[in-house]
Amino acid sequence: MRYVNILLGVVMVAFAAVQYNDPDPYVWVPIYLVPAAWAFAAAFRLPRIVSKPGAALLGVCVLAYVGLVVYYWPQAPQFWRKDVWWVEETAREGMGMMIALGVLLVVSAAALTARNRRS
Fold this sequence. Notes:
With about 120 residues, this protein is an all-alpha fold. It has one domain (about 1-119). About 80% of the residues lie in helices and about 0% in strands. The protein is built from 6 helices and no strands. The protein is elongated and about 50 Å long.
């Protein structure tokens, strides 16, 4: 799981890096860097995530990102099709939020697995 989390962290940093020409990078750079930080923490500091404060903070982040996915859910029909998301920024934003939530869920699964191994 360490390598998976490193890869996901690098992908999220790359997502944040390409926001330089976005009209609102001050919103999207942090949205992508938070899951990146959690992924790197899961790769290199997993015991801190498994701790009660770490698990609680991760849970808050996951819940916040679930709310953000609902908020940014693409309204465009068939938003997953390339000809739609290539044109619609809202579709890309919604899909980016889904990916960010997916990264947090992978981190949560790694933390849960580590916690179950300790028990």
